[in-house]
Specification:
This protein has two domains: 35 residues, no CATH class; 139 residues, Nucleoside Triphosphate Pyrophosphohydrolase (Alpha-Beta Complex), CATH 3.90.79.10. Helix content is 23%, strand content 44%. Helix 2 packs antiparallel against helix 3. The termini are far apart.
Length: 185
């Protein structure tokens, strides 16, 4: 297997930016030597939290997403800020979106969210012993909070009822850890 990148980058410039991400435009040579352009969404990364309450239920949010004009089942999630580690970002998102506090945190895995167009890296955390309080959502967040048995949440991920792919993947990545968590409760 050849690990050498097959593209040659000739130049890069930031074509557009906002507080959450930016678009980089690269002029390059494709593997066959032809010139081309590739646009990359540069993103600082994000976190997805699988919150398990003290009763052993998983907390999901039903979130309206403007970009797709649809209500989506999701886990608490959000982007990394420059001053935050992934764990601090996960703790902040749990507090903001569901008013949650966890007694234990475990980083489970990471993945690229949309590796065809972005460098965004998603971190998955399992938060256990979660108690819920008053959420403090951002102005653009319109959501409701739901606690469900773990089996139901996992079935929603497998059946496609959870249409937010990173949330579905995060649930499936955490599944091997859930049996131990549920036995402790």
């Amino acid at each position: 297997m050849n690990d050498k990148p097959p593209y040659q980058t000739l130049s890069s410039e930031i074509a557009w930016s906002c507080p959450w991400f930016r678009v980089r435009r690269d002029e390059l040579l494709f593997p066959d030597g032809r010139p081309g352009v590739y646009n990359v969404v540069e993103h600082p990364g994000a976190v997805w939290v699988v919150p398990v309450t003290t009763a052993g239920e998983i907390v999901l949010i039903h979130n309206y997403r403007y970009a797709v004009d649809d209500w989506c089942w999701e886990l608490p999630a959000g982007g990394l800020k420059p001053e935050h580690t992934p764990l601090v970002a996960a703790q902040e998102e749990l507090r903001e979106e569901v008013g949650g506090q966890a007694s234990e945190w475990q980083e489970v895995n990471w993945f690229y969210t949309t590796n065809g167009v972005s460098n965004e890296k998603g971190y998955v955390f399992l938060a256990t012993g979660v108690t819920l309080g008053e959420p403090d959502p951002e102005v653009a967040e319109v959501m409701s909070i739901h606690t469900l048995p773990a089996a139901q949440a996992l079935n929603m991920a497998r059946s496609g009822e959870i249409t937010d792919a990173p949330s579905a993947l995060a649930l499936l990545l955490v599944e091997p850890f859930l049996n131990g968590v549920q036995r402790q409760i």
